[in-house]
Amino acid sequence: MSFNPSSFIDEISPQLREKVGNSRVLIAVSGGVDSTTAAALAYKVLGEKVVPVMIDTGFLRENEAISVKEMTKEVIPNLVIEDKSEVFLSSLEGLEDAEQKRKKFRDLFYETISSLARKYGTKMMIQGTIAADWVETQGGIKTQHNVLVQLGINTESTWGFTVIEPLADLYKNEVRELARYLGLPPEISERQPFPGPGLLIRVVGEVKREKLNVERRMNAVVERALSKKGLSQYFAVVFDSDSKQDEQKSAEVGARVKVYKARATGVKGDVRSYGHIASVEGDLNYDKLRQTVMALSKYDITHVMYLVKQRDHGKYSVGIRAVHTDDFMTADVPMIEHGELLSIAEEIMKDQSVKEVLFDVTSKPPATIELE
Ligand code: XMP
Asked: Would you say 356 and 254 are in contact if contact means Cβ atoms under 8 Å apart?
């Protein structure tokens, strides 16, 4: 049956009103489709009782807070930006393990919500969790920062507020339909998803301020360059360039293979795996790259990247990630012309801290869309 936004709103409104009663309710808007739609829905149903806040965690995209406030001003008036970047950055700096980073971010995020809830006099928050979030978390693929109840976390005793999730049964395409219906601009409703922990999970491996700034700038370069291609998701990741050439794997795939110290997440069977990033160098066509991914995924390798451009100096590797997907549970990598990748790489390498630019050629599975 096709999704009908108007009936959905009719059905969810009395439930929302009953849960919230006469209280105020906080909603954290990340600028992503889900949380922004949840906020627009809440505002439509509950009006002034809703306190919409955007927490600047320091891991937002370039100019994100200001542009989201501008894009949503008709549908979510009074969006408040709370700058907590120093708290997040100082607590996350130095962490390296993907799960630890996600868990720490989640704790900081909800501690912040808890203090904001006190500040705004409420014990309730609305959250834009959608079906895929809890399906994958329950499957053990990752710890979504926003899935709490499904993980058995009692938010009331841990942080002093209850969570309402009006979009929990919807899939991404349904959320987009609802967003359009609610009058959100296409810049939001058609926007590519952006993960709750933000750029944190795209600064792959150890979190460092300089590395984060490189990530933020390069992510903007990649978004600008690929925005017109109709991709489901496209972004940049940054990791430390330390790597070793692997003779045995090079011989096996017939191209130069380097294995990085940096690790990234993948999916094996139905569970999440954590392995290394590898790069391949050479004149490789699409079929050859697919075979290489298959061959290397037998090892402790979760993401395979094709080397676009390199030089002798610099300490960071920048990976370009681009995927096509319907449901975000599986994803394919489109072929992007070498010349196009090269011109993006040239733009990225204007930054002297970047040693090389790579293009991630791994589908999901065996990789995940994000690298952590
Ligand atoms: P993965 O990397 O698991 O990503 O293949 C699937 C989709 O989920 C997004 N994603 C997240 N979204 N909180 C979110 O709100 C998270 O912690 C998170 N992790 C991944 C990812 O961007 C992709 O769209």
From this structure: no
